[in-house]
Amino acid sequence: MERIPEAEWQVMEILWAESPMGAQDVAERLAPATGWSLATVKTLLGRLLAKGALAHDEEGRRYLYRPAVAREACVAGESRRLVDRLFGGRATPLVAHLADTGQLSDADIAELAKLVKELGK
Amino acid sequence: MERIPEAEWQVMEILWAESPMGAQDVAERLAPATGWSLATVKTLLGRLLAKGALAHDEEGRRYLYRPAVAREACVAGESRRLVDRLFGGRATPLVAHLADTGQLSDADIAELAKLVKELGK
DNA sequence: ACTTGACGACTACGCCCGTAATCGATAGCT
DNA sequence: AGCTATCGATTACGGGCGTAGTCGTCAAGT
After folding, report:
1. Which nucleotide does the CA of A37 lie closest to, via C1'?
2. What is the pLDDT at residue B56?
3. Which Pfam family, an example, fits this chain (chains A, B) (predicted)?
4. Cβ of B121 less than 7 A from strand D
């Protein structure tokens, strides 16, 4: 699975949330958050098409874009890379780390407890 | 805190594990895993010095390098970035995801259970 | 003193990424 | 039939990163 860089990721998020969609529409939804011009968005769409992360249907003389890879799969790749690089491939130290650095609220911990209980079954 | 790219990270790992150390020594430890030439390692050391991630003591006419930033702090930054980007800043979904994708062994889950119990106290 | 070797500094260069303008074709309006 | 707006494709360009060669300097050996 191809690596998807930051800017392209944001385009994917739009299309994972709703698709298919034309370039114009994608650009409109990104504009508030990013300020990117339509031209920029088109470039990103093109690159994503080229690397197979998006597919397109032709509607008249324009494309309707939709994801060709599942968000789940991409997230899996990214998080695995991080865990490998930072924690020697072991997930537990990551959680311990998040806890240590105060990135887990009480609600998070409660939720984790439930999750872990579920997993242990 | 400056962002530390992949190749430079590997240099940091060496020095986090043992320091201070000369360029030659760093290169020798990296060689088996990376195959990088001494010149490449020197470049990376220079860049890390420039961005303040390393400090150096002069020993005769050469430098002894040592980390100027804690590994903990860098790891915190990286993992926060990932969690923000992929999981909307919430850590629990990350754990759920690791579980779903089978990246947690039974041992991991047991360990997590213990950790969570500890955190919940 | 002279050469040799090792050091850090500087330079190089191709690729990827973020950002965008421009181009050629075409659909639609007038 | 001609103009205009719009589409995707192509090209651009600065900066960062991965990888490495070269240069000026100085220490050490002979």
Report:
1. C20
2. 97
3. Penicillinase_R
4. no
Bond into B20 cis (ω within 30): yes
Q: Are the beta carbons of B54 and B65 closer than 8 angstroms?
A: yes
The token duo for A8 is 């392209």
Answer whether CATH 1.10.10.10 is correct for domain B6-67. yes
pLDDT at A41: 98
The pLDDT, as a whole number, for residue A65 is: 98
Query: What are A30-44's pLDDT values in tens digits?
Result: 999 999 999 999 999
A98 reaches B (C-beta below 8 A): yes
Q: How far is the CA of B5 from the C1' of D17 (A)?
A: 8
Residues of chain A with CATH 1.10.10.10: 1-89
CB pairs under 8 A between A and B: 100
